[in-house]
Design a protein that fits this description.
The complex is a heterodimer. Chain A is of the alpha/beta class. Helices cover about 15% and strands about 25% of the residues of chain A. In chain A, helix 4 links the parallel strand 6 and strand 7. A four-stranded antiparallel beta sheet of chain B has the order 1-28-27-26. Chain B has a four-stranded antiparallel beta sheet with strand order 2-3-4-5, with no helix packed on it. In chain B, strands 6-7-8-9 form a four-stranded antiparallel beta sheet, with no helix packed on it. The chains are: A alpha/beta, B mainly beta.
Chain lengths: ~210, ~325
């Protein structure tokens, strides 16, 4: 039993096994096309959206290293691929990323912990940063994203961390706490690594855009 | 002020708050000649002077609009509004209150009679920002964009509650709204950091200003209509010429982000109030600026985020609201150039 949307191959195989494509009778071609188109467009779920927040700043530099040498805070590596709901890689995406420092403060004077990544042909991004801090108004650690790409709808979202004490060890149960997080899928697992002399955290946060 | 409380102690907002709790009569005590501090039982979201300047009205979180005598600080009356309604906004003459209901409905209440005079459907999500045109013929509302990004709009209604148009604002929603004094122009500041000016009559976009690097949280037109002042996260006040929409002056010196702003009736003085990311812990500043020179005329402390600011119609008094306090400032005595 398939409890997810079937892939294109599965749809075609299913049709063949039922004789639909060969006989072409029991299912009208328009229905078949519509099923195929639906499968094509929704093969992958788009990344849930989130609020923009008041502290977006224009003009951030294109830099993947947000953590300066000697910065306090827990080192964090975030990476992911930008694709669309058809599973295709997205070319020419631009990603604004901004977050607080480890103490929960946004840099409003400069561009610390802010970047505008311009992805050329490769649709993968990676940043080196620190785990953001907590602050009173939104006491869940988060990183803001705003993504645009030719031919796709712009996306505003946020990344949260399953290890955040805010979720009390159970993001499934607690992600709705205080109505901060819009969707469970935005709370991502955090891999912790112990390297000689330093520990760091890694998070995979792939972005899935909808076609315009 | 009681003679046994030293001025230095009284000037500290935290000490003043403690003293006011212990000695309620101090709520109407004076700091400098003409200044007055009025204590409210509930945190305040908006203030406005009455048309005759005799009363100061404050919309409070306990769903009451309280009126005090602006000169003596004596309590006059309270007008209750629906307990489910949020985001109260008082018109500039303190005669109308607009709130939003839990279903997003916009509710207008006459503050003279206390009666609801109109209730009409708002956008799907309750508007966060409301602006009246000076002639009261238009009401504009906008708020945080929906999570799905489908409501990055400013809605304009006529006085009867008929929706006239939806104007396309930027991604992320609207942080502040204002009509020009002649009612001809509507300006919205967006969380995308841009400013948009529309012709109110037909909704034509007059200018998209993309210069500000950070979002503006407060907008105010000078009463003579010559300038639009915007201020927000980057602590500066920007003055825009409303004929060319070019930035003509930047006022610097507010030590924290700016959340509230008001012009004096003669357009010569601008009042700004701040907030910080430590809002509940650190005092912020209330600043009076001389527009012509860009100089700070007076700077005072406020113990909490400044939620709202207003000038009296004759320009001799100004008011700021933060937490449970309305501060009345004697403009003629201390800030007039």
């Amino acid at each position: 039993m398939i409890d997810r949307k079937p892939s294109r191959r599965e749809v075609i195989e299913n049709c063949i096994s039922r004789g639909l494509l060969l006989a072409g009778v029991p299912m009208a071609s328009s229905s078949l096309f519509s099923l195929w188109a639906q499968t094509e467009n929704q093969a992958h779920k788009p990344t849930p959206t989130e609020v923009l927040g008041p502290f977006f700043k224009k003009g951030a530099p294109n830099a993947s290293l947000l953590r300066a040498a000697g910065d306090p805070g827990f080192p964090l590596h975030v990476s992911g691929k930008v694709t669309n709901t058809r599973g295709e890689i997205v070319h020419g995406a631009q990603i604004d990323i901004w977050q607080t420092n480890h103490q929960g403060f946004y840099d409003l004077q400069g561009f610390r912990y802010r970047t505008r990544l311009v992805l050329e042909s490769a649709s993968e991004y990676a940043i080196e940063t620190v785990l953001p801090g907590h602050y009173d108004d939104r006491p869940a650690q988060h990183i803001h994203y705003m993504i645009s790409a030719p031919g796709h709808k712009p996306l505003i979202t946020q990344l949260y961390f399953a290890t955040d004490p805010f979720f009390e060890g159970d993001p499934d149960k607690n992600y709705r706490k205080r109505s901060i997080v819009s969707h469970r899928d935005l709370v991502r697992p955090v891999m912790l690594f112990e390297q000689p002399g330093a520990a760091h955290a890694t998070v995979d946060f792939g972005i899935c855009l909808e076609k315009a | 002020m009681q003679p046994w409380i030293s001025a230095s102690v009284w000037k500290r907002p935290d000490m003043r708050a403690v003293l006011m709790l212990v000695f309620p009569t101090l709520a109407i005590a004076q700091t400098v000649a003409g200044d007055r501090v009025i204590a409210s039982d509930s945190p305040i979201e908006a203030v406005s002077f009455s048309a005759d300047g005799r009363s100061i009205a404050a919309a409070c979180q306990d769903h009451q609009v309280r009126f005090w005598n602006a000169r003596t600080g004596e309590f006059q009356r309270a007008v209750a509004f629906n307990k489910e309604d949020v985001r109260p906004s008082i018109s500039d003459r303190a005669d109308l209150l607009v709130t939003t209901g839990p279903d997003g409905a916009i509710v207008m209440r006459d503050l003279e009679t206390g009666r609801t005079i109109r209730r009409f459907s708002g956008p799907a999500r309750a508007p966060r920002e409301i602006a009246f045109s000076p002639d009261r013929k238009l009401i504009a509302g906008a708020g945080l964009a929906r999570i799905d990004g489908s409501e990055n709009t400013v809605t304009v209604w006529d006085a009867s509650g008929t929706k006239l148009r939806a104007l396309q604002a930027g991604l992320g929603g609207v942080s502040a709204l204002a009509f020009s004094p002649d009612g001809a122009t509507l300006v919205a500041a967006g969380f995308d950091t841009n400013l948009r000016a529309w012709r109110a009559r037909d909704g034509e976009l007059l200018r998209l200003i993309e210069d500000p690097p950070l979002a503006m949280f407060a907008l105010a037109f000078s009463p003579d209509g010559n300038y639009l002042a915007t201020a927000g996260a980057d602590r500066n006040v920007y003055l825009w010429d409303t004929k060319t929409w070019n930035m003509v002056r930047k006022l610097t010196g507010q030590p924290e982000m700016i959340s509230a702003m008001a012009f004096s009736p003669d357009s010569r003085i601008l009042l700004t109030g701040g907030f910080s990311e430590f809002t509940l812990r650190n005092p912020v500043q209330v600043v009076f600026w001389e527009l012509a020179s860009g100089k700070i005329l007076r700077s005072e402390q406020s113990s909490h985020r400044v939620e709202s600011a207003a000038f009296s119609p004759d320009g001799t008094q100004a008011a700021t609201a933060s937490d449970r306090t309305v501060s009345i400032w004697a403009v003629a005595a201390a800030a007039k150039p």
